[in-house]
Amino acid sequence: MEWSNAKKFVIVLLVLLNVLLAGLNYKQNRENTMTAAQERSIFEVLSRNGITMYTDLLTEHPPMSRLAVELPSYNKETLERLFFGSARTTASTKGGETVYQGKQSSLTMSGARGVWETKAVKSGKGEMTKTEALREAQKFIDNTEHFFGSYGDAIIAEESEGFRVNFFGQYKREKVFANYFSFFVTADGIQKITFNYYPVRGYTGEKQDLSYADEALLAFMREWKKGEHAEEATIDRMELGYARMESNTAADGVASINLEPCYRIYLMDEEKPYLINAYTCQILNQ
Hints:
With 286 residues, the chain is of the alpha+beta class. 29% of the residues lie in helices and 39% in strands. The protein has 6 helices and 15 strands. The protein is globular. The termini are far apart. InterPro entries: YycI-like.
């Protein structure tokens, strides 16, 4: 009898504990979520200043840690396998850059950044579609995932001589702006690849609260109004992810770079985004 009562007591206690935790989680989620009033307010302020939002507003802002990455380490054989189909190249180094030269293609490496280009692919998009350009670029991303990691959905832009296909890195569920691949694809194939890659070590430090998207938009608006722009602007994309802020040395002696959460705001007809630190709400660059 006593054991039966004890079990009932434990069950009731667990139920109450679950209800309490659910309530705390709900409260925390509400504290990290914009209200409907905040959403209306930021749309009105932007509209009065000639700025239109043509994309979804980020409304949830859970605390985020920094992301520790490191400089990549390559060897000649790996780069030849990834970019030259295992064909042999000649390597030369000058002024901090290493150039790997193949028969018709070359790869220039400097730290985390690389540029591969080939003379074997002609310019001109011909009858090529965005879907076909994406397929070409996606094939490279898929074939090198074992080395360069995962990348999110592509952003495709049509240009006079071909298509620009951009991919940004992904770690777990977060975007990593510091890692990217940019392909220039013509009807003849991939003509040029520009990329930046930092191997991810993992999250570091305590999670910190983020500035809300409306605060970031106000910071952008103030910066935009300083310049010589047209009277109106359209925001066609807003993202939250990790970008490079600082570097230091990890305890194991490996150079570690800490990426911080940042908002990126893209304007229609402008290639480069506005970058805003999500911790401090400071404009970093354009």
